[in-house]
Amino acid sequence: MNNRLDQLLEMLREDENSSFLRFALAKEYEKMEDFDRALLCYEHIVQRDPDYAGVYYHYAGLLMEIEQYERGFEVYDMGIATCQKLGDHHALAELKNARTNWELEL
């Protein structure tokens, strides 16, 4: 393990409901190419804090990168619906753009 990962895990033990910390942990796992653990973190956030809009772009993007296209599109759609509900126009535009780019690429 690396120092940053250790720090994040320790902080998460103290605040296990922190979507921000779990998101940071997912990004750290991605850097380490531990995609299974990153996906588990993202899924945890979606299940426990579905209004954490920032997770959908990164979660779906990772799924697409590892060629889990069907689930990736599902996550993009979940994020789009969430951002519409929340009125988060910036995140909504990013999700729609990313989804469209993947549709054009595949």
Summary keywords:
6 helices; single chain; Serine Threonine Protein Phosphatase 5, Tetratricopeptide repeat; 106 residues; mainly alpha
Task: Please outline what is shown here.
The protein has 106 residues and is mostly helical. 81% of the residues lie in helices and 0% in strands.
Structural commentary:
The protein is an all-alpha fold. The protein has one domain: Serine Threonine Protein Phosphatase 5, Tetratricopeptide repeat, CATH 1.25.40.10. Helices cover about 80% and strands about 0% of the residues. The protein contains six helices and no strands. It has helices spanning about 5-15, 20-30, 35-50, 55-65, 70-85, 90-105. The longest helix is centred in the C-terminal third of the chain and has 18 residues, at about 70-85. It is globular, with a radius of gyration of 14 Å. It starts with a helix and ends with a helix. The model has no long low-confidence stretch (mean pLDDT about 95).
